[in-house]
UniProtKB/TrEMBL annotation:
InterPro entries: Peptidoglycan-bd-like, PGBD-like_sf, PGBDSf. This is Peptidoglycan-binding protein. Residues 1-27 form the signal peptide. The keyword Signal applies. Residues 111-152 form the Peptidoglycan binding-like domain.
Length: 171
């Protein structure tokens, strides 16, 4: 049996993985296709992204009095109070998962992506060339557009595409 060369193995693995995810899916959310890994009640042929916001945990340290001070009537201290330091962690905000519908890969045509680039250029969020490719600069501009609306993702949400007037709003 012939050993597989490392670069060939890496190419095979990356090629297999790239068939599972749309462009830009490596950062900003989980993508599902055809009802796999989607929120409950999702349409069978819809595509979804998931944003996971980590929990915020705060470490709280405070002093607990174990024994009060012994004080005489004239105010002199016989024995100072004894304290113990306690530290605990409190969850300030729990972890949150937010599902959002995205455009499926087959819907992200070069013409639509070019329209996205033009719409983001008009909003002064994209400064690249209108190439029709969902490249790094386009994904970064998508993130800048969606972030003020509470979605920190470079996957174009269906809601954002509708807001930009690029996808028809269903009745």
């Amino acid at each position: 049996m012939t050993p597989i060369r490392p670069f060939l193995l890496a190419a095979l693995l990356l090629g297999g993985l790239s068939a599972c995810t749309p462009p830009g899916a490596n950062s900003g959310g989980t993508v599902s296709r055809g009802g796999q890994q989607a929120p409950p009640g999702a349409a069978p042929d819809s595509c979804w992204g998931k944003q996971t916001t980590p929990a915020i945990i705060e470490t709280v340290t405070h002093q607990v009095m174990l024994q009060p001070a012994e004080v005489l009537a004239d105010g002199s201290v016989l024995q100072p109070a004894i304290f113990k330091t306690e530290t605990r962690q409190d969850i300030v905000r729990p972890r949150q998962e937010t599902w959002y519908e995205i455009l499926c890969t087959q819907d992200l045509t070069p013409e639509l992506i070019a329209s996205v680039q033009r719409a983001l250029t008009a909003r002064d969020l994209y400064h690249g060339t209108i190439s029709g490719e969902m490249d790094r600069a386009t994904r970064a501009a998508v993130r800048r557009y969606q972030k003020p609306q509470g979605l920190n993702s470079n996957l174009l949400s269906l809601a954002a595409a509708r807001q930009m007037g690029l996808v028809a709003i269903e009745d």
